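hey all, quick one before standup. I had two proteins in the batch that finished overnight and I want to keep them in one place so we stop losing track of which output belongs to which input. First protein below, input sequence then structure tokens straight from the run.
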Amino acid sequence: MRRVVASAAAVFLVTLSTTCDRSPPTDPHRQLALRLEADRVLDAKNFVAHLVGANEVPSHDTPAVGEIKLQLSDDGTEVAYRLISSNIDNVFMAHIHVAPAGVNGPIVVFLFGPVAPGGGRVDGVLAHGTFTAANLIGPLTGHPLSDLIAALSTGGAYANVHTNDGVAPTNTGPGDFPGGEIRGQIDVAGPTP
């Protein structure tokens, strides 16, 4: 009888130790959410950013706003873009830069300009067109377009619009922020049009 009790106790201890060593089950909803987010980034074809002065580094108090929409071609070789702005004066350049939010980064694509300072008011489509890997500059010179798309897909790129009234000194207020008056971090807007 004692042998049966000892055997039962040994089985209980073995069972207890193996059940205690198991890791907790993974939440299937979290796994699905992570997989969907990865698919969203990998399949990204459309990107968007809302540009405001508060996003610039340093931030600017300005009534100017803008929006950029970008669409990657099906074959991944070109990006069509449309940059819209309103309540902004003296735009002389606009670009895409690589850097996370809150950090200034290098220019990698020209979207508009440069043109002469002091150009006056702009409301509506500021620039539109397409660019390819051949248009990449700065740290992305000679890189495939997929390197920029990776930055766009992960929040590692932003668009901004630069202004200059052509009168010294600079940075005197709206219409005179040569380092950038409005900025927006580019994010995935969807996989298909």
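OK second protein, same deal, sequence then tokens:
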Amino acid sequence: MHGSGEDMAAKPKKDPLAALMALPGVGKATAQKLFDAGIKTPAGVNKAGEKGIAKAGVSAAISKKLLAAVVKKSAKKATSKAKSKAKKAASKTKAAASKAKSTAKKASSKTKDAASKAAAAGRKVAEKTVSKAGDHKVKTEKSKDGRKGKTLKVPRSVKDMSWFNKR
């Protein structure tokens, strides 16, 4: 049915020389020379050095340019990797700081809760103490001089106090 095979959807193969041709000053012919010599990537160019590139049939001037371009490209990659690692480390540090902050906030709220509970318990004890002490009221008596209401009966000496007479 399909005689030529053009109708079938197949993945196009990537050009093996594309990585080498991405380097400045490397055309199809130079890339083919390097590929035939076993140098297939920019890292391979760096590994082969000037002597390896010269054995592939590339002139010394071009080999120097190639090595400089590969070193520059690898330096850019290393710089970008270092930057991304630094960003990741900064984001991890930031996340750890925010986590520590939230933990401190939680601990602070727990401390505040404990303090308010202690204060409430203290108030209850104080109220009980006051209610027990409230039994000792100052006695009052009807005023003898014709005024309305009652007058407080304030003791003049210790002998007039109620606790003194209980013996």
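Flagging for whoever picks this up: The mean pLDDT is 77. The helical segments are 18-21, 28-36, 42-55, 60-133.
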